[in-house]
Fold this protein.
Amino acid sequence: MNSTSSQPGGEGTPDTGREDPADARAAGPEGVRVCRDAPEGASVCRDASEEARVPRAGPEKVPVRGARHERVRDRRDGPEKVPVPRAGPEEVRARRDGSARALWSRDFGLFFVARAVARLGDTMLPVALAAGLLQHGYGAGAVGLAMAATAAAFAGLVVFGGVIADRFSTRRLMIGADLVRLGTQALTAALFFSGHVVLWEICAIGFVNGVAGAVFQPGVASTVPRLATDVQGANGAIRVAESAAQLAGPAVAGVLVGLASPGGVFAAHAATYAISALCLLLLRLPPLAPESRRAPGAGARAFRADLVEGWREFRSRSWLWGVILVWCVYMIAVWGPTVPLVATEVVQQHGPGAYGLINSALGAGTVVGGLLALRLRPRRMLRAGAVALVGFAAFPASVGAGLGVSAMAAGAAVAGAGLSFWGVMWATTVQTQVPPEVLNRIHAYDVAGSLAMMPVGQALAGPAASLLGTEQVLLAAGVTSLVVVLALLASPPIRDLPRADPPTEPIPR
């Protein structure tokens, strides 16, 4: 103990030539020097004003609750007093607002730009295909066939893309996929500029794009949690950017078709893949945790084993396959028929301008849903997402009920917000609940299962409308969307699944 007496609180020895600290403090802060014994026997002197600021520890001080106080321990084996470290103001602010800190890093910004720009290009593609093929004498069936070639390749191969992504570097795979699509879209632009447009060539190029997309997409799921601790905030920000791009893409494509030609749109689309590849090239992904690293086996047998392992992991999570099972019904009975039948009904009854307005309202709603997902942090994410999904019923129901354009646009905005919020909750749940070593494969099964039934719903939309009437099919889609929500909420593994966010780290100094 660093005191002048053998007992705490005892009086100092007068013949030592040193003043007692209590007397020194009473004498006033100025002009008084107080001396203490250092551990080696030397004297250490300070002004009384400084001495008053030196922490003095007794045998043990009782900790005081509250962030402004610190506990001081007396180390029995030496004179050193060790204060328990406290967070500084920057760290306190970081813990209060960990989402902003964990989200907007340099690397996440690059990934954010890559996703937004790529989405902008993807939404330009339907306009380019429709305008280009119609201009060269092909009909609507040819446009659908070209789009179907890409969709079929993607849906059929994305599961294998998940296995590949878990075996190799996801960043390199995504860069390679972007470079492939840069080449294919540049070739398509050259074909349209030259006037040499053959349908089978366009379909073959579309198939290659679908293969590249199947290799690219699984890596997106595992990249987000590696770049941002706030996974929900990252998904919300990306959803907002993609929704804004979806609003702007068709308009940009229309301007380019008018100013240049469909070939100019394809050239711009190729440029978006170049920007995406550049951003991913500059990206620095943190290394995986040691327990997440795996040495993949070689050969077809090892590849099949990885595929089976992914299926086993997928099947072992009842909340996961439960949602996918419900979503298959959703795609067949709700989303599949809603998209083509709403387009047909609105264009026939109110003209293409009204359909453009409703589509824009849908996109604006998805932006709002993404912004809400940035703010709200529900404990039961899938439950909250399912409740938000109730809003989608307003879209097909308002069109099926024959309401006015403004009411249909409002219904579309509500539907977009609910669907977007659900999408963020679902993506965040998958990325935080599934181990990193199988996340790419699980995401691939998720994408394949979610999209597999959409073409079925679109194919059945026409016959169902002919048999029952377009309005009745759309009203049934609105009712079915509510049934889907009830099915999600009725399943305890889905309804009661708690969020599993990674811990928030303090800001590094």
Observations:
- DSSP finds 20 helices and four strands in the chain.
- Residues 1-34, 36-44, 46-99, 503-509 have pLDDT under 50 and may be disordered.
- Residues 301 and 332 are 35 Å apart (CA to CA).
